[in-house]
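Quick one, tokens below:
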């Protein structure tokens, strides 16, 4: 029990209708989405409270909250400026500031991933799509190129 917080990166793979052999497959099925765990926190309620209040209009229903690169920059600034609100909840634990450096690093890496620079040798033709998403061509193998859209989402459970 307690507050578990996840920052996930989702890569939505576009279908190559002209060359179906280029579509990534797993167990004989086409892969449509790949989810990466970009960050995880156990009981960091102040960060949770800030994200819910700022990006989900204060509605905390354990639902995914999309975060743009600009949103994550705002979160980093709030951490650096000690602007995270004191937040309490059932078995939420307490934030003590010791997690700040690691949290900032997680968000910086998430921004790089979202913008397609986490693996610069793989990503090319990176295009911002708005609403926290980018489109990029990614070389999966030397003979395959797929296009993907990316987004970063925050979700908590307790």
């Amino acid at each position: 029990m307690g507050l578990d917080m996840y920052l996930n990166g989702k890569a939505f793979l576009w279908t190559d209708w002209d060359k179906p052999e280029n579509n990534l497959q797993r167990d004989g099925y086409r892969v449509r989405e790949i989810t990466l765990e970009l960050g995880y926190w156990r009981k960091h309620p102040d960060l949770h409270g800030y994200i819910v209040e700022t990006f989900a209009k204060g509605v905390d229903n354990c639902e995914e909250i999309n975060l743009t690169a600009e949103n994550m920059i705002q979160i980093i600034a709030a951490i650096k400026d000690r602007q995270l609100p004191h937040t309490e909840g059932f078995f939420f634990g307490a934030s003590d500031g010791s997690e700040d450096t690691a949290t900032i690093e997680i968000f910086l890496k998430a921004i790089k991933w979202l913008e397609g620079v986490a693996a610069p040798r793989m990503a090319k033709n990176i295009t911002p799509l708005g609403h926290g998403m980018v489109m990029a061509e990614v070389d999966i193998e030397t003979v395959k190129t797929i296009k993907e859209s990316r987004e970063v989402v925050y979700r908590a459970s307790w």
